[in-house]
Amino acid sequence: MKPLKSLISICLLLLTFNLRVFAAEDTVYLTDQAESPIQQVQFSDSQIYLTINLDSQDGRGLIIRLLNATDAVTSQLNPEANQADIEKKQKELGLDYQSKKDLLDIQDNTRVSEVIDQLESLTPGIYPYFSKDGQVILKISQADIKKDDQKLIISLFNNPLLEFNLENDSLIYDDVTLNKE
User: Fold this and answer.
1) Per the structure, how many domains does the chain have?
2) CA 71, 138, 105, 46: dihedral to nearest 10 degrees?
3) Can you tell me the mean pLDDT for 6-13?
4) Which of 6, 73, 140, 164 is close enough to 152 for a disulfide, judged by CB 3.0 to 4.6 Å?
5) Cβ contacts of residue 68 below 8 Å, gap of 6+?
6) Angle 88-94-96 (CA atoms, 0-180°, nearest 5)?
7) Where is the signal peptide (predicted)?
């Protein structure tokens, strides 16, 4: 009986981990173009979810570029940076635990995955996930979105990450159209 309970617990944990990314949907843009580096963009509260096409060379390059964006800002990619400078920069940017711990809603029965999700939602950054069907999803948390009549620019720490052209109810990225769902 004990192995069955353990198996059920593990399955529930994995199901919770996979589904928590998709809990709230606001605005979704999709493409049916197979060569597109980005298959879907979802804007939800203060989060942006990008579904990346791993079959696209540009998609794999985009993952690397976006995941390195936070490290570059905090000097972690600079071999000359010392630990004190990195910690100071992280504190200035709100990337340290001390600046977030009082904002967490932790009860006696709070699961670890819920705490991680809260920290990611409160902390600016880019967080990778896998969907149930094996797609890579990048969650961009606390991003700045600047939009005018022609462009939508997503920035993190005042550094532009992505730029989309706007046309009717569509986003255009690298000549690929993502239509509003």
Assistant:
1) 1
2) 100
3) 39
4) 164
5) 77
6) 65
7) 1-23
For 30, the token pair is 């999709």
Range of the domain at 52: 2-180
pLDDT band at 66 (very low <50, low <70, confident <90, very high): very high
Write the single-letter amino acid at 92.
E
List b or e across 26-56, with b for residues whose CB sees 16 or more CB atoms inside 10 angstroms: eebbbbeeeebbbbbbbbbeebbbbbbbeeb
Model confidence, pTM: 0.77
Q: What is the mean pLDDT of residues 23-40?
A: 86
Rounded to an integer, what distance in angstroms lies between the CA atom of residue 145 and that of residue 18? 26
Beta-ladder partners of 139:
49, 127
pLDDT for 85-95, tens place per residue?
Answer: 888 888 888 88
Tell me the pairing of strands 176-180 and 159-167: unpaired
